[in-house]
Write a structure and sequence with these properties.
Elements: H1 2-15, H2 18-29, H3 36-64, H4 66-73, H5 77-87, H6 92-121, H7 127-146, H8 148-154, H9 157-188
Helix pairs in contact: 3-6, 3-9, 5-6, 6-7, 7-8
């Protein structure tokens, strides 16, 4: 009898990927769902996070596989990047490596930000470190490693707007969570 139950559980567990996804979701985000206003804030940040992660990943691979792109699509990515670097006033030999390094560091920083978003979902105030520090490092990389001309000329208005929305949304979430936690602390000592 036990053998039949084990076989049925095994077959049920692997007949659909849904239970696996639920377990992964619960592992990352926890089993408790936040209130609606917190969910909306987190979803907005998650969408912006995904946009930046996809952009930096695609950029990294486009630069890394520029030789394959040249052979397959007849697009010389290297010349395009070197010319753009020259237009911005950079030494062409340095600009390519800096751009590649920037995108690889950005991927790592945006993955750290995802950890912060998971802590946002769990309503843990430690999220501020996993979001704040990578965002500061991201700006430092952009301004000081690539330089202000890159930020001014090659960072789109959409990118700047999405970054600003992400930042404001995170600050809004922090204030709301801090107020919620202070209300819980004040209610702890009062009798209802």
């Amino acid at each position: 009898m036990k053998e039949n139950n084990a076989n049925e559980n095994f077959e049920t567990a692997f007949s659909s990927p849904i239970p696996l996804f639920v377990k992964i979701k619960n592992l990352i985000f926890g089993e408790n769902n936040p209130e609606l206003v917190f969910k909306i804030t987190i979803y907005i940040n998650l969408i912006i996070w995904l946009i930046f992660l996809i952009w930096h990943t695609l950029s990294y691979f486009a630069i890394s596989f520029r030789d394959i792109i040249l052979v397959e699509k007849k697009i010389n990515v290297e010349i395009l990047i070197l010319n753009r670097g020259s237009e911005l006033g950079y030494d062409p030999s340095v600009f390519m490596n800096r751009l590649l390094n920037f995108h690889s560091f950005s991927i790592f920083l945006w993955l750290l930000i995802f950890v912060g978003i998971a802590f946002m979902w769990r309503q843990k105030l430690i999220f501020k470190y996993f979001i704040g520090i990578p965002l500061i490092l991201y700006l430092i990389l952009m301004f000081f490693y690539l330089g202000f001309p890159y930020y001014k000329e090659d960072t789109t208005f959409f990118d700047k707007t999405m970054f600003f929305i992400f930042l404001l949304n995170t600050v809004f979430y922090y204030i709301m969570l801090k107020n919620k936690n202070s209300d819980k602390d004040s209610n702890f000592f009062t009798s209802e």
